[in-house]
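Let's practice the habit of predicting before peeking. Look at the sequence and jot down your guess about where helices and strands might fall. Then scroll down.
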Amino acid sequence: MSETLFLPDQPMDQARCIAVYESLREVMPPSVSKTTVRGEKLRDFFHDLDAVLLDGYGVLNIGADVVPGVEEMLAAAQGADVAVMVLTNGGSRPTRSAGAKYRSLGLSLDDRQVVSSRDALEDWLRHASPPGLTIGVADSFCTTPDLDRHHFVALTPDAPDRWTEVDVIAFFGAVNWDYRWQSALEDAVREGVRLLVANPDVAAPHPGAFSFEPGYWVASLTAIPRDQVRWFGKPYAPVFDLALQKLEEWTGRSNLKRERIAMVGDSLHTDILGGNAAGLKTVLVTDHGMFREGGVEAAMKTSGISPDVIVKTV
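Done guessing? Here is the structure:
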């Protein structure tokens, strides 16, 4: 496995994805020991919850297909007075695009109920970053942020010199990524250019295949200093802090207890590890995403990551 771990001409699969995540563990939040219980459906546990943060892929949808039972789960949440937010690592497009996508799939979700890793990066750029940065946007599919505080430059592999002329490179997504893009990124990193990674996903489950996501391409960079990369999406704290802030705004409640808020996802290394570190209850859904072909027990043993609850579906 180690010889082919970072060869993108080899197909991504579950085992490889988990191995890449494991190669990043030293920069991830620490594991939290959990005793796991099992059930059939997420909605069976609503009596113990005040709110849920739902991952997108593998929980709500797979590609253009809605996961069976999602509409019933959302109705059950409303009936049980459980607040619903979507927390996704998708970063290439503004959050309103994600809200529109879910509504096009027939799901009654307001834009204010969607929080993305892009939002976490943009929040840092608005409020915490040094002003006046020249930021290279390394994603040809990405909608460039509209922030007057900084200057954004669209990067392409056809102009490799520009990659080393920016202050930082913002890595939102990898829809059109290939060797040429990666070569330009590697050269910039060797020159000391810092990375802001919106989407830490290594891979995403699609019908019949797994895609290569920004976390994979960053993991494949050799000997990059830890402080040269800043991560914003799951499992890292910025996106969870922002999601909990948005949850308070949506519900009008500032007294929600974290142990009654569940992070629900299909990935141990993003949804569950991050949710555990944030002090949330965590629920792993196995039938539609990362573990749709099995393997969850082996992955938990390899990683040492465990959720509070494992369910087959929502």
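How did you do? The two ends are 33 Å apart (CA to CA).
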